[in-house]
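Risk register update: the risk of archive-format incompatibility is retired. Evidence:
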Amino acid sequence: MNGIKLESMLKEFFMEDIGDGDVSSEAVFSSDELGSMTLIVKESGVFCGREVIEVGFAIIDPKSTVHMKVADGEKVERGKVIAEVSGTMRGLLQGERVILNIIQRMSGIATAAAEAQAKTVGTKAKICDTRKTTPGLRMLEKYAVRMGGGYNHRRGLYDAIMLKDNHIAFAGGIKQAVDQAKARSGHTVKVEVEIETKEQLIEAIEAGADIIMFDNRTPAEIKEWIHLVPAHIATEASGGIHLDNLEEYAKSGVEWISLGALTHSVRSLDISAKASSDFFSKEDSTYVNLGRA
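Archived output:
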């Protein structure tokens, strides 16, 4: 994950939430009152978001300290403490919601990726994501897929050629689209072609596609057609695939299964932040109990 980009993203998210100031915290606490906060998982899943916690609280309060208790990609059970954070009370309160929102979503995605990948055990299929990510969060969401044991498809329009139905329609056919793509791209760039019929499959093979995507095809159709694909061409299935039918697709012989649901409709993992009544003394920076919750 790009640390510079992460810091920039988090600053923007904090600006949206804090605006000109946190009137609630500033009305109750002085700028030098210190405290601690514990981040706790409230349901089982796969955790993801260590850097978000560490970088996020450091942006709000450079003197804050974070003690991580789990690693990205680690399975966690309900009640597990994932991090302990100490710093100014204002900083803890200003940072908690934005940080929780992000790590809950990242952990939900990692959990979903782990569940999906488990459905492919015993086959050669691997789970990957799509471009159906939340605008502005793609780097974080794709990182979360990897932490859940999945793989990343292309990161955007800029790093891979994928010829979909509309590219093919505009170009006048699969051969024309592939020919143009190969003529205008370097030798290191692979060309993926989306197909929906057996005739399109044969045309894509003859055109020299590097990857063929079976789009919205049933497992039975893929199993019937896949023997036509030479070994040097990678295969992918996409469209209408979910946890209930994922195992059937994995058994069809396809190498990759791309799931938009990993990012576009995933449920966040429930994580909460609890403030401690123990916080630092201003004088000696040691923990004392002053009776404030």
